[in-house]
Each structure stands twice: as structure tokens, then as C-alpha cells.
Design brief:
Layout (H helix, E strand, L loop, with lengths): L1 H8 L35 H19 L10 E7 L8 H11 L19 E7 L2 E13 L2 E17 L2 E6 L21 H20 L3 H6 L1 E7 L2 E2 L1 H13 L8 E14 L2 E12 L10 E14 L2 E8 L6
Parallel strand pairs: 1-5, 6-11
Antiparallel strand pairs: 2-3, 3-4, 4-5, 6-7, 8-9, 9-10, 10-11
């Protein structure tokens, strides 16, 4: 049974589809700058003044909660474009001190790459300063044990060294986030789809025939399957499985159905499908037996013109 389960696992090919309810983040983690406060300096005296004011906002107000001092860096009118916040300095101070009841941190430490909202980059032009920060988001609301990262931004327009106007990507509670722009499909999309389908066919043929070399070659050099990483390790995995089968082990066939291919870029895609692993059978002989079935997803990439599997997860969250 253990061998059958392992063989069944080799049939799964899996990738997160952007439109699927069980979607997992595909992006690289957002990482804070190692020395964030060094980003708030500039050779231009006006840009330097504005960046320094933005630093005070990011550090003293947003990190340390010194909202009683907000008038040092925000104008009295402070025009707000966040849909859940009203304009005006007094309203900002009242919200954070009386409604949110933010307690100031004393002494106020410097910004750090370990801050949950670590600063990634600072951009200054004319009267505007934009700070890009990390945002940690749970897959399930309230459960911070399973999260992903994305990027938040705050943009301020400065007047005489104080922030007079503010923008960020906030939405009203319960408002669906704006749909992301569709990923750019390759110019040769029809050919790319045919090549990816051929890749999936070569994968199942390699495992059905226990061809360890052919199996390893459908992966990238650092391709991963359930913690087994790299072509050499993948080759050894299949060789070991074949050696442990025994002389009476049945021939296997791996099937994939309901396959979709969603491009995440010109040289990357996500493949989703259902899979089955069955024993070989024919009329008048042993009847085929289903060993396992499930859903799968693969992350595939094009390397030097060839589509290959970058990552396989044979046990994605079932939906």
C-alpha cells in the first residue's frame, strides 16, 4: 500500500491557478531593505527635506505611535484619500489616540528590515514621496500561522516640509480588491500550449516506463518534487522506486483530465488538472484497478526555449 501510494503521488502535477479559490501566492517574498533609514536621504535639499519628513511619519507615527506629535509632519488640512479616513490633522490624531488607542513606544527605535511593514524602497520626485513597504497577509482572515507577502504603498505630497495630501491602496471593508491585470501570455501562445501538453505527456510516459533519465529531464536543473530537488536527486528517486517494485508489481498508467494552462508570464505557466493512477488491464485479462486519484498543479517555465517543470506539489489543498 505504501508503494502504491507513492506511485500514485508521482502522477500528480500541480499549479496554483489565479482564478481558483485555493490559490496560493506565486510571487517571491517581499523583503525589507537591510538599512531602511538610508533610503530617506537625497542630494537635492528639497527632496531630502521631504524624505526626512516621510521618515518621521513612517517611524515616529506609523511605527512608534507618537500621534500627539503628528502636527510636526502633517499640515492642518492633511487631505486624505484613504476611503476609511477623514481629512484633517485633528481627525487623524483623534482616530489613532482615541479610537484605535495606539500606545506610543518609548524610546522609538529606528526602522528595521524585521518590521512587519518593513520599508522596501523610497521614491521622491517634485513634491511627492512614495514609500513601498511589505504587507503580511493571512490566507485565512485572523490566522497568521499561514501567510504570504505583498507590497503596500503610501504616497504623500509635501508642502513646506509637511505632508499635505496622502494616497494608499486601501479599500472599504468588504470591498473586493481590484482584479489584477492579466498576466502577459507568450506571443506564441498556441505553440506554448502544445509544448506544455507535450511536457505533461513526456512526464507520465517517463514514470510509467520507469525511465529515470527521461523523468529527470522534464524538470529544470533545480526542479523540485515533494522536497526532492535537482535532476540527480530526482533520477535517484525514480531509480530507487523502480528497484523496490518487485517482479510481480503491475504495470501502471497515469491519467490527467480537465487540464487547464494559465500563463503567469511569457515564460511561465500554471497547469491544473485531476489525475488518476490505475493498473494496466484489458478484456480477457486482469481488470484494471484504480490505485489513487486527486487534483494536481504544476509550475512550469521556459528555459532556453524548452518548457520544463519547476515545481511539483502532489498534495495541494483539495477543493
Amino acid at each position: 500500500m505504501k508503494l502504491a501510494a507513492l506511485l500514485a503521488a508521482t502522477a500528480a502535477v500541480a499549479l496554483a491557478t489565479p482564478a481558483h479559490a485555493q490559490m496560493r501566492a506565486l510571487n517571491e517574498p517581499v523583503v525589507g531593505h537591510p538599512d531602511p533609514e538610508s533610503l530617506f536621504v537625497d542630494d537635492d535639499p528639497v527632496l531630502h527635506r521631504n524624505k526626512q519628513a516621510a521618515l518621521h511619519i513612517q517611524r515616529e507615527l506609523l511605527k512608534c505611535g507618537h500621534w500627539a506629535d503628528a502636527g510636526n509632519w502633517l499640515t492642518d488640512q492633511y487631505i486624505q484619500h484613504n476611503p476609511v479616513a477623514a481629512s484633517g490633522l485633528e481627525g487623524v490624531i483623534y482616530y489613532f489616540t482615541e479610537v484605535a488607542q495606539v500606545e506610543p513606544i518609548e524610546p522609538c527605535p529606528a526602522l528595521s528590515p524585521d518590521d512587519p511593514n518593513a520599508v522596501v524602497a523610497v521614491i521622491a520626485e517634485d513634491d511627492y514621496v512614495t514609500i513601498l513597504t511589505r504587507r503580511i497577509v493571512p490566507y485565512v482572515a485572523g490566522d497568521m500561522s499561514d501567510t504570504y507577502t505583498t507590497t503596500w504603498f503610501d504616497t504623500w505630497r509635501f508642502v513646506d516640509g509637511k505632508a499635505d495630501q496622502h494616497w494608499d491602496p486601501a479599500t472599504l471593508p468588504g470591498t473586493p480588491a481590484p482584479a489584477p491585470a492579466p498576466a502577459a501570455a507568450p506571443e506564441d501562445e498556441e505553440q506554448a500550449r502544445a509544448d506544455i501538453e507535450d511536457l505533461m505527456w513526456r512526464y507520465v510516459r517517463a514514470i510509467d516506463s520507469w525511465d529515470a533519465d527521461a523523468y529527470a529531464q522534464v524538470f529544470t536543473e533545480d526542479g523540485t518534487f515533494m522536497g526532492t530537488t535537482g535532476r540527480d536527486a530526482l533520477r535517484e528517486m525514480v531509480t530507487g522506486m523502480a528497484e523496490n517494485r518487485g517482479p510481480d508489481a503491475p504495470h501502471l498508467h497515469h491519467f490527467m483530465a480537465n487540464q487547464t494552462i494559465d500563463f503567469t508570464g511569457p515564460d511561465s505557466a500554471v497547469v491544473n488538472y485531476y489525475w488518476q493512477t490505475v493498473t494496466r488491464g484489458s478484456p480477457g485479462a486482469d481488470a484494471p484497478r484504480m490505485l489513487a486519484a486527486g487534483q494536481g498543479r504544476d509550475e512550469v517555465v521556459r528555459v532556453d526555449g524548452e518548457w520544463l517543470i519547476a515545481n511539483r506539489d502532489v498534495a495541494p489543498e483539495e477543493g
